[in-house]
Amino acid sequence: ENYEYTNLMQKLNAAQQEAVRATEGYVRVIAGAGSGKTRALSHRFAFLVNELGILPGNILCVTFTNKSANEMRQRIHSLTGDNDTGYINTFHGFCVSVLQEDSYAAGYPKSFLVLDNSDIDAMLQIIYEERGLTLRDMTFSMARDMIEIQKLFKRPEYYRDMIALPLEALKEKYDAAARAEDIIFFGYLYQEKKCFGLDYNDLIKFTLHIFKEREDIRLKWQQRLEYIMIDEFQDIDALQYELMEALCAWHRNLFVVGDPDQTIYTWRGADGRFLMDFAAKFPGTQTVMMMENYRSTPEILAVANSLIEKNKYRIRKELLPRRTGGAPVVCHFADTQEGEAKWICEEIRRLQAEGVDYADITLLYRAHYVTRAIEQVFLEEKIPYTIYSGVQFFDRMEIKDALSYLRMIAYKDDLSFRRIVNAPKRNMGKRRLAFLEEYATQHGVTLYQALTETLDDSIFKGTKAGQFVSLIEHYAAGYEDRPVSEILSAILNESGYEKMLRTEGSQERLDNVAELKQSVYEYETTCGEEVSLPHYLAHVALFTNADGAEAKGKVKLMTVHAAKGLEFSTVFLCGMNEGIFPSRKVRTKEAMEEERRLAFVAMTRARNRLYLSRGAGRNFDGSPQYPSRFILDIDPHLFHYTKEPRAELIKEAREYIGYSQKYMPEKESDVTFSIGQRVRHAVFGDGTVTDVDRDKGAHVVQFDNIKTPRSISFRAKLEKI
Ligand code: ATP
Ligand code: MG
Question: What pTM did the predictor assign?
């Protein structure tokens, strides 16, 4: 494709052109939703490459999700016509690239494993079995959260153990642990090191560690990355910020874009102040503002503006529509959740009759459970849909199995071995696996190694263990020179895995596997960096729900968080009830403002049509559920109500909301005490806070006169002493 400078610039307004041309130094774009920030960013990439002759491999472009990284890669590919797209990735994905080159500096091999949730669960399974823990002690998802909190906040230096201690020393720590929390945490570190596995937190921590300890490596990356660009900068967290600072310190060409009204990840440590304080931190920063919105109709923007205005802590900025008149924003109050779902169905049918494609319709919601009623009706009404969360594409059994075959070839790790040694059936059941576990522990080898060493043992008579080993050995011997897509097709065929799916008659699984093959192929053709098997495996673990194959001809369902940065022609924002959206977990005014920003993000995803809906219902305690304050926030003249809501209901809802708002503390530090704080309880007396459990909403307090610690709800009065 022939590229022309005027062509590129013609697609941009004056502010965007300014952002594109300002290539040197520190540049910050602050602008509202849909104002063309991401567009400016991708065109700037093309400008650097096409106009200035910068090599894509010397540009780092950080996106917030893998989905947006993929989209960006494709855009850059079409703008530059170049196959080499450089480093377009999430922070985590970029860290994988660094570690694939330099993990040796932390004593890890190139073939480290990137762990995803199901890998972590497989490790937890082992730990729970070994130490007699049950899900009552802690569910897996709680355990994963606990591990993350330990790594981020409570033991931020944990990675030093992973790097410095030999495996036996980690095992000793695990053996010595007594509390469930410690057993799980140290057991997990041990399991991780055992297979050289790294989870998302480790990726960032290890990279930072290497940059700190090894100036030569840091310098190499600093010099390589001549230009750095970061999208969605309002949601950067402290560790990512540290990484960014380290990387840009040499060339000092840093370009960030963000919208303070779209900060929605502070609960995970994001900090919008990094965007606001950017100019003070980097003197000489050039700031570009963009005021015009290209995405949405004026009707949709008026609604979104009317909502976000209600936030107290914000810099006023209004989105000005570029587009002219569209359809009114529709608001529907149903009597039940089923009623809400049915109405959405009818509306979708109506749109379809008007020629709207299913794929142009997206349902957004605050939390997964909202989809239950909707899915039921969709199934009955035969409306095709895909959920971009819930069971994730890359979490599906057949996808994990297929990837495990690839991992077996490259890493021969225990996690993959357990998954596939008996899929398809090779007569390698529990008893034989236990035999291998035993042997592996005794000899300090992997399960696969154990199998190769004991293949002649009588226990494997009548099994297909030998075939399995030959298969793996055959592929392991020559994978370096073959494209990943080819290896994948070949091994799924030869191993009999696909045949197994065929005999099971699971067409859906076969389709998913075909989809995976296609996605590998696409990845190979647009990735930029050389795609070897280890490269692919390290990056694929970062793919999550939102990155699954694009669903054609289906309505999309996803959470608002997953929709960040994306846009859709028609959006249904459903489940708009108090206690759902805003979530009942919101306890402070500060958190309520973040929740409102989240609703703002949801509404500003819509290009042409926006629908808001709710179904009345009851809370667990029997009290009525009220319509969301985020609907009541909006000037009612901006809506088209399908049916005027009862005045009484609105009045009651306002009273309820006013009351809850009045007694809401300003910020988290007003509700919670920090660990170590001395407190007084009306009945239990004085004590010390030993933990803060935000999920349960309680302080754990060791009272002076009670032996064991107690969890005290945030609602109960504890006095500072
Ligand atoms: P968000 O804050 O939601 O991430 P954004 O600021 O990144 O939004 P983009 O996604 O870049 O906005 O752009 C929004 C829409 O407007 C896209 O469809 C884009 O193609 C279109 N757009 C952006 N700039 C222009 C322009 N100068 N002319 C025409 N269309 C534009
Ligand atoms: Mg964007």
Answer: 0.83
Alpha-carbon span 187 to 143, nearest angstrom? 12
| Adjacent-strand bridge partners of 77 | none
Measuring from atom 8 of ligand 1, which residue has the nearest CA?
A: 34
pLDDT tens per residue across span 470-495: 999 999 998 988 899 999 999 999 99
Distance in angstroms (rounded) separating the CA atoms of residues 218 and 242: 13
Residue 367 — φ and ψ, nearest 5°? -140, 150
Q: Is 31 marked as binding a ligand?
A: yes
Mutate to test the pocket of ligand 1, among 8, 17, 28, 39 (most ligand atoms within 8 A of CB): 39
Query: Among the atoms of ligand 1, which is closest to the Cα of residue 35?
Result: 6
Phi and psi, residue 510, nearest 5°: -60, -40
CA neighbor of 709 nearest in space, from 690, 681, 694, 692:
690
Work out the burial of residue 529: count CB atoms within 10 Å of its CB; fewer than 13 is exposed, 13-18 middle, 19 or more buried.
Answer: middle
Ligand 1 atom at minimal distance to the Cα of residue 566 = 3
Q: What is the pLDDT of residues 31-65, one digit of tens each?
A: 999 999 999 998 999 899 888 989 888 999 998 87
Q: How confident is the model at residue 355 (pLDDT cuts 50, 70, 90)?
A: very high
Ligand 1 pocket test: pick from 235, 295, 317, 598 the residue with the most ligand atoms within 8 Å of its Cβ: 295
Residue nearest to atom 30 of ligand 1 (CA): 294
- The CA distance from 390 to 619, in Å, is 23
Active site residues: 37-38, 231-232, 262, 605
**For the stretch 531-542, what's the b/e string if a residue is b when 16 or more beta carbons lie within 10 angstroms of its beta carbon?**
bbbbbbbbbbbb
Q: Which of 209, 236, 196, 197 is nearest to 116 (CA)?
A: 197
Helix axes 238-248, 200-213, angle to 10 degrees: 40
Query: CB under 6 Å to ligand 1: residues?
Result: 12-13, 16, 31, 33-39, 259, 262, 294-295, 565, 567, 604
| Residues paired with residue 191 on neighbouring β-strands, in sequence order | none
Distance, in Å, from the CA atom of 513 to the CA atom of 490, rounded to the nearest integer, reads 13
**Closest ligand 1 atom, residue 604 Cα:** 3
